[in-house]
Design goal:
Blueprint (H helix, E strand, L loop, with lengths): L15 H34 L3 H30 L5 H22 L5 H16 L1 H27 L4 H14 L9 H4 L1
């Protein structure tokens, strides 16, 4: 019964003479690789001798100055970000940010995944609910003005030559109909 041997580790196709010739072949290949590596190492050492030390010093100094400048800019940016800001819209931003942080804290406490994203969504809904009465008033005012458009068009045709009279009659029409034409503008600003 023939003995099973793993592939490549012997067998009937390889004789002792082949193994010796393979060893010689591997040794010569190894010598060529070692010689090539030694030549490359020697070339790298010779290339190092051609580098101008002043030129290298100049480039390293420039790199260090760039890193130092970036660090100073980052520190200055942090200081500017920490400085208190004032202004009309900053008040609203601070209030909304504190609400957002509060909602996020509650959702984190409840172990809600993606709490910050849900906080943004909930804050948006709260703002929409808070501004709903203004939006409703704007929509009602727009509908009333649309209902008065045929009458306004009639006044424009009637007083086409007298702009002052047209403005007075239009204002009277708005007053009689109890319509405020500026009521539609306020929610836009809010």
């Amino acid at each position: 019964r023939a003995r099973c041997q793993p592939r490549g580790l012997g067998g009937s196709s390889l004789s002792k003479g082949n193994n010796v010739s393979q060893g010689v072949h591997i040794s010569s290949r190894r010598r060529r690789v070692e010689t090539k590596a030694a030549a490359e190492t020697q070339a790298a050492i010779e290339a190092l001798h051609t580098i101008d030390p002043e030129h290298l010093h100049h480039h390293l100094a420039q790199a260090l100055y760039s890193i130092a400048d970036a660090d100073v800019a980052a520190v200055a940016g942090d200081a500017a970000a920490a400085a208190p800001r004032s202004g009309f819209f900053n008040t609203f931003a601070v209030v909304l940010e504190s609400f957002l942080k509060g909602i996020d804290g509650v959702l984190d406490f409840l172990h809600v995944p993606y709490a910050y994203g849900f906080s943004i969504i909930l804050l948006t809904i709260l703002v929409k609910v808070g501004t709903f009465p203004l939006s409703k008033k704007q929509l009602e005012s727009n509908l009333q003005i649309q209902a008065l458009q045929p009458r306004i068009k009639q006044l424009q045709d009637q007083y086409a030559d007298d702009q002052e009279r047209l403005q007075l009659e239009t204002a009277k029409l708005y007053k009689v109909a109890e319509v405020n034409p500026l009521a539609g503008c306020l929610p836009t600003f809010v």
